[in-house]
Predict the 3D structure of the following.
Amino acid sequence: MKHPQSSLPGTTSTTRPLIGITTRLDSENTFYLRRFYAEATEAAGGIPVYIPLIPDREYLNALKDKIDGIMLSGSNSDIDPALYGEEPHPKLGPVVPERDETDLILLEIAEEQELPILGICFGMQSLNVSRGGTLIQDLESQIANPIKHEQGQVYNRPSHHIKIEPDSLLAQLAGGETARVNSSHHQAIKQPGRDLRVIARSPDGVIEAVIDSRPGRFVLGVQWHPEIGWEQDRLSQALFRKFIEAARQYSEDAAGTGYLISN
């Protein structure tokens, strides 16, 4: 049955780009992902396809001519700090190598192909690590005067404000320089990686959004979860629409030069 909100205002139905979405891996060796990523993608005009966490370059490389965009989902795991040159903090959570490796290979492919990318929570962190950036391994113990970022239930409740850079893509989508977002994480970007521009922060200074600084590239990372509660949140809907618009343009561009956005 079609999702009751499967046509967001402002979407078009001319071309439905194929969006590859990374999954998760649980302790019983099951690949899984909650329904919200697929539903939000479909509602914005995309065709969602979940990607199993098989960190095989030949397998993942075979996807590059089939997908029009990559969504890096959130995860209940932490990225291995060895990938950014640090030893594990005592409050480091579980690490899932299959997720880390799959994300990093996909990001290499996306960089080569100039595929549009949307990184959500863990996905933004893996994007940053792939660009040579580093992470804060535990916000509560590693930054001064942190606000509560590990929201817990109810997950769709906008729990804190973010300050958005003026004239950035995110400011355009939010319709201003502040927004309220739902938050569920204990790690965050410390040092931004190559070609990533910070465009939003929380009141305690934690980086909440980054964008590719190069013209003509759509690469956006957000630290919150726009896929949860998107039906009632205008910013979430705008984020997914913009991502699908970029993927649609990519799919229609015979030269594969990507999508020109305003940073």
